[in-house]
Amino acid sequence: MKAEVGLLTRNVLYRGDPETSSVNQYGAHIMIHSPGDESSIGRICYIEMKDVGQAFKLGRYPIHFHMIGTVHQSHVIGNAIHQTYNRAITTHGVQYFTVQHNVAYDTMGHTYFIEDAAETNNYYDHNLAIKIKKSMSLLNTDQTPGGFWITHPNNIFTNNAIANGEAYGFWFDMKEHSTGPSFDVNICGFNDKLGQFSNNSAHSVHKYGLRIFHGLIPRTYPCKSLIYDGDYEANG
Question: Are 124 and 148 in contact (CB under 8 A)?
Fold first, then answer.
């Protein structure tokens, strides 16, 4: 038999209050935010995070990159995140972000969370999520959580693994347009292209390893109607 194995300890420990965090579901968190492309650089690497995230609090995730835009120089690599009360790593309103070689264990809600459906060209590689638990304090969808909750298809997912979750492994929950503070009628993830999804695995989950809902129907012009023929229009 083969099993998923992840090392949860690191030399540097970042944690909430060991006496009260688990009782109150109120832990430590890291948010990186500044408006404008490349206006912040965040590199979080090879640390252990325990008793993190805050239930019933929007945006209070263990690691949260928030509404920056393009972040070519930022990454989250090699971390161990466990005993969390509100997800593990959230990508919100950022593009060209790297999330690689992380381990998440005993998390509440969607573990690797892509929030507004405006997040594109991000790279998720060799990440692990184990023991994904439902949450009644977040979105309705967190009552049936996924190891990855993916709202825009144009991202890269390679060599990731999910094991032991209360609902789904990888959940593609496409949106007609981006939502929240990223709302834009010119972003149409439901009909946009899939970046890459290869060599990922999900097992020992209570529902589906891979769920595509509400749909993924790529086409050349994602925000145009089916009768639109841009090539014909361009050529007269």
Answer: yes
DSSP 193: P
Check: CB of residue 77 under 8 Å from CB of residue 123: no
Residues facing residue 45 across a β-bridge: 77
User: What does DSSP assign to residue 194?
Assistant: P
Residues paired with residue 84 on neighbouring β-strands, in sequence order: 52
Strand 43-45 to strand 75-77: parallel, antiparallel, or no bridges (unpaired)? parallel
Q: What confidence tens digit (pLDDT) does each residue in 96-148 have?
A: 999 999 999 999 999 999 999 999 999 999 999 999 999 999 999 999 999 99
Q: How far is CA 58 from CA 81, 84, 87, in A?
A: 19, 14, 11
CA distance 103 to 34: 27
Judge contact between 47 and 10, C-beta under 8 A.
Answer: yes
Residue 143 dihedral angles phi and psi, to the nearest 5°: -75, -15
C-alpha 96/C-alpha 99 separation (Å) is: 10
User: Are residues 79 and 102 in contact, defined by beta-carbon separation less than 8 angstroms?
Assistant: yes
- Give the global pTM: 0.94
Q: What is the DSSP letter of 208?
A: -
How many angstroms separate the CA atoms of 102 and 213, rounded? 26
